[in-house]
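Q: Given only this backbone (233 positions), what sequence would you predict?
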């Protein structure tokens, strides 16, 4: 059963989302929140698998809320018999408008695990929730391209600390990261490097783990910010 926390500043939209998700087998809504502060508290108390957040809350305060939810302070779970085990952070799925890629970029850097256009149909929404709950990323192809273009157009690069993970990557993993940052699919990377797509998937997973990223698009940001790739002037 995938548990969901609904975050929206409109009570009628929260109710509609709750009714929609409650009717879907395998999904349960464990709570609601009207703003970022409520979302942080509810996420800590309820520990949902996914926090479904409306993009209207993705301003400066909303971005900080996403950061607190997706990357909570280390804490022990209360699971009997496992006193030292840490609770996994929930995935954050943001419903966004097609023209809000700038906010989407900031939210991804804060730790959001996926984005879905707010005009998506119910089947797309429920499928996206399950994907994010499984730890994978959900980002529409159009938005992915927009995000990659946005970071390429930046004129400056803010170097990341040496401890950020770049130094831990093998040369092959760096090659894969460069390809990911260029927007290539696993199949395209496999053809370029003459390796199996399953091997590419393993390399991508290793890269994400080493740099502390939850999704491929966050790896794109890392590639540019670390100086591995220079943005276009």
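A: Predicted residues:
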């Amino acid at each position: 059963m995938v548990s969901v926390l609904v975050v929206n500043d409109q009570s009628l939209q929260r109710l509609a989302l709750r009714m929609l998700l409650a009717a879907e087998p395998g999904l349960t809504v464990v709570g609601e929140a009207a703003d970022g502060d409520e979302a942080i508290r509810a996420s800590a108390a309820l520990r949902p698998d996914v926090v479904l957040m409306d993009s209207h809350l993705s301003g400066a305060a909303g971005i900080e809320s996403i950061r607190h939810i997706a990357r909570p302070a280390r804490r022990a779970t209360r699971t009997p018999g496992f006193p030292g085990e840490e609770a996994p952070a929930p995935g954050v799925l943001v419903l966004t408008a097609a023209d809000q890629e700038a906010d989407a970029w900031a939210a991804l850097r804060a730790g959001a695990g996926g984005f879905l256009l707010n005009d998506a149909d119910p089947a797309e929404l429920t499928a996206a929730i399950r994907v994010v709950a499984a730890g994978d990323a959900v980002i529409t192809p159009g938005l992915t391209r927009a995000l990659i273009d946005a970071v390429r157009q930046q004129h400056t690069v803010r170097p990341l600390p040496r401890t950020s993970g770049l130094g831990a990557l093998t040369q092959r993993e760096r090659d894969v990261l460069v390809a990911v940052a260029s927007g290539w699919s696993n199949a395209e990377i496999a053809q370029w490097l003459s390796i199996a797509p399953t091997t590419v998937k393993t390399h991508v997973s290793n890269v994400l783990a080493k740099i502390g990223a939850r999704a491929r698009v966050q790896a794109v940001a890392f590639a540019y910010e670390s100086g591995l790739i220079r943005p276009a002037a």
